[in-house]
Specification:
Radius of gyration: 24 Å
CATH topology of the largest domain: OB fold (Dihydrolipoamide Acetyltransferase, E2P)
CATH superfamily of the largest domain: Nucleic acid-binding proteins
Helix content: 10-25%
Structural class: alpha+beta
Distance between the termini: 78 Å
Strand content: 25-35%
Order of helices and strands: HHEEEHEEEEEEEEEEHEE
Largest sheet: 7 strands, mixed
Number of helices: 4
């Protein structure tokens, strides 16, 4: 009987230890929608008046240059934000050291930028609008200790030319089964793309190109502050031919209408 009692106690102790170990090993569930106290949800941000102070949290999906004021494409599962840290040098509201941490998974050199891997940040600033683009200006960006999160690109091809497209502003989006249409260069020739919107640029400038869907033509851009000369998408647009069929991804920036900043191109 005594041996049986001792054996039972040993088994109970082992079960207890295993249970504790199992509990200790159970990781906390990561919720990319979670916000710190006092931080706006996306719906609260969307409802805020222009010119009002805002405080948001999200995950950096892309970053433009540091040297002319850092700009970030930020998202959470409910929406997306364009963040503008104004100023240069000591006036900028994020240090170059922190900027480099945010874009460390990309080709960061000499202030360049790229597609980011979802570092979580808190952003304090003013909800503003510039030529139709709703953004957070005068922004101060703080890196948070968190797991990373990257948004899936949402197919908005069917929304092109509709009022509903503006609801997707700043999101990571994709456009499928697009056709390259001609642009006119300075001499009036048909070309597949232009350096700058009017063809006045040179390699390294922004790339503008026309694509169509369902008989309607739209103008897209590879923003050189986001995807530099030599990146896959920049080289890909330079190699386009009129009539090529494409799938595209990018951020739905707004400039007097939809002005997608393209970050990926697939020629079919």
């Amino acid at each position: 009987m005594k041996k049986l009692f001792i054996l039972l106690m040993v088994m109970l102790t082992m079960f207890s230890l295993c249970s504790c170990k199992k509990k200790e090993e159970t990781p906390a569930v990561f919720d990319p929608s979670a916000k710190s106290e006092g931080v706006m949800t996306y719906s609260e941000y969307a409802a805020a008046e222009l010119g009002s102070d805002v405080l948001i949290e999200g995950f950096v999906q892309g970053a433009q240059s540091y040297w002319q004021g850092a700009k970030f494409y930020v998202a959470d599962p409910d929406g997306a934000y364009f963040v503008y840290c104004d100023g240069k040098g000591e006036d900028i509201n994020i240090s170059e050291e922190d900027y480099a941490k945010i874009v460390s998974s990309t080709d960061y050199k000499d202030g360049w930028k790229g597609i980011c891997d979802g570092t979580k940040v808190q952003v304090k600033g003013v909800k503003s609008e510039w030529s139709g683009e709703v953004e957070i200006s005068d922004a101060t960006v703080t890196i948070l200790d968190s797991e990373k999160w990257v948004a899936e690109a949402e197919d908005v091809t069917s929304l092109l030319g509709t009022d509903a497209l503006i609801e997707k502003m700043n999101k990571k989006v994709k456009f499928t089964d697009m056709t390259v249409e001609a642009s006119k260069d300075a001499e009036g020739n048909d070309v597949a793309f232009l350096y700058n919107w009017d063809g006045s640029g040179e390699p390294g400038s922004d790339l503008y190109f026309n694509v169509s869907a369902n008989g309607t033509t739209y103008n897209f851009v590879v923003e050189s502050y986001l995807c530099y000369d030599g990146s896959d998408v920049y080289d890909g647009v330079e190699a386009l031919k009129i009539g090529d069929k494409l799938d595209l991804e990018g951020f739905l920036y707004w400039y007097n209408g939809a002005n997608p900043h393209i970050t990926s191109i697939t020629v079919k």
